[in-house]
Amino acid sequence: MQPTFLPWSGYVALADAADVFVFLDDFQFQRRSWHHRNRMFSSPDDPTWVTVPVTHGRTDGRPAIAEVAPILDTGFRKTFRGVLQHGYGRSDHLDMLQPALDDWIDREWTTLADFNIAFIELVLAQLGIETETRRSSEIGSSGKRSARIADLLGRVGATRYLSAAGSRDYMLEDGVFPLAGVDTAFQDYAPAAYPQAGASEFVPYLSVLDVLLQVGPERALGVIRAGSRPFQPWMDRT
After folding, report:
1. Domain coverage including residue 115
2. This prediction's pTM
């Protein structure tokens, strides 16, 4: 998966289900995408977008995520902390998680990939998920889209590929999958409801940080896993 900003629970559930989770950090960055924006509560009943401003030196407009730099200036840090305080200030869990979040947001990150991956690995650690993580930029790969994924799978010696459901259409279009010797299955995930302080009804598909701050790390993994359904075999999805 590409390293997204403050990813949703389904992203974490996919990492939880894997033996090895590969961050596609050298894949193409897309503006106004999950790569640098996501939703959290800014106040009860008011989900809002939090967007990381970014810059890059590529003149062709098609940089990789690892070539994009986050602009973590005073304004962004103030805005982000304001969202946390206004949206989750009543939570019993913000004070507990605040030091780790402050350390993450206050560090000087060279790339958006590093920034996003650090948060995801922080979440995995808070939840007690011990999945091995690797980066595609370190593994090396060639090809485009499905061919590149297939190459990565071969390089890590995979015998089973757990794919996000949204990848199905382009994988069918490319005609590379299914692969010999690699069982391919698609995630089937629907967020389980959990208490959200001040919300009149449950708001799904927010950042996983919402789960952590609403129910705390000790309960959050159970909530995340409750949304997981059996992975769907390739043949069942075609």
Report:
1. 9-237
2. 0.95
